[in-house]
Design goal:
The chain has about 260 residues and is of the alpha/beta class. The protein is about 40% helix and about 15% strand. It has one domain: Glycerol-3-phosphate (1)-acyltransferase, CATH 3.40.1130.10. Strand 3, helix 4 and strand 4 form a beta-alpha-beta unit.
């Protein structure tokens, strides 16, 4: 992949400043919404404020431009999905906030401890997860199931972390176990272009154009725990097949081309 386009320092400083201002403006409103909707397993009200925050911050930045492609599932407002996406950078949630439906998000617990952004995540109804700790994983999955039973989709990054080089990492089983247990389809979303916006370990923003492409849902009807690996590999295969074209059109090289169709992971 070509190095990220260097942003004008003024534009970069403005982006930092406006992100902080937008967070400061939205967090009190989100706190009130969270209080009003406490006990609601869907957290639709707080979650909509979280997506408004992401869209507002993006539109005020001169550095980022986002597109959405693909077909929105016709029943997603009334029927839950487990939504999965490849994880490119910290800019991914901003891009995904433009998807036209409600979701609750799963994120690592450390992010909830950050000032302002962490408060927004908690008030927005996101679901914390301490990776590698069994009790936390069970609590997280229980809350995800409660949300899915309430009729709202749950968003997860099955790689578990961002890739350094952008290659698609092996998928963890949690999202697919959850989908089978809850009896809901998996909806893959392919992301490209966000890595140039905020590469892993970078403290600066890059200028880039990115896209989220909605792929075909994968049904789980009739599946059991024995089918978790099959479902996981189907979702990973769908993303792997969609990414080369998307990355070519949105400025990324295809790091996955070094792998043989990713099927061995």
């Amino acid at each position: 992949m070509a190095p990220p386009k260097k942003a004008n320092p003024v534009a970069g400083l403005w982006t930092y400043a406006e992100f902080g201002l937008v967070l400061s403006a939205f967090v009190p409103i989100m706190a009130l919404s969270s209080l009003r909707h406490r006990g609601d397993p869907t957290q639709r009200g707080p979650g909509r404020w979280m997506r408004r925050l992401g869209r507002t911050a993006t539109r005020l930045s001169p550095l980022w431009k986002f597109d959405i492609e693909g077909t929105r599932p016709a029943d997603i407002d009334d029927h839950a999905y487990v939504v999965v996406a490849n994880h490119e950078s910290q800019a991914d949630p901003f891009l995904l906030s433009f998807l036209p439906w409600d979701m609750r998000w799963v994120a690592k617990e450390e992010l909830f401890k950050q000032p302002l952004s962490g408060w927004a995540m908690r008030f927005g109804g996101d679901i914390p997860l301490r990776r590698g700790e069994g009790d936390s994983v069970r609590e997280c999955l229980d809350e995800c199931e409660r949300a899915l039973r309430g009729g709202i989709s749950v968003m997860m990054f099955p790689e578990g972390t961002r890739s350094h080089a952008g290659a698609l990492l092996p998928f963890k089983d949690g999202a697919f176990d959850l989908a089978i247990r809850a009896g809901v389809p998996v909806l893959p979303i392919a992301l490209a272009g966000t890595r140039a916006m905020r590469p892993k370990h970078s403290r600066w923003f890059g200028k880039a154009h990115a896209c989220a492409k909605v792929l075909a849902p994968i049904p789980t009807a009739g599946m059991t725990a024995a089918n978790i690996g099959e479902l996981r590999d189907a979702a990973r295969g769908a993303l792997s097949a969609a990414l080369p074209d998307l990355r070519a059109r949105y400025g990324d090289s295809d790091p996955d081309s070094r792998e043989s169709d990713d099927s061995a992971a």
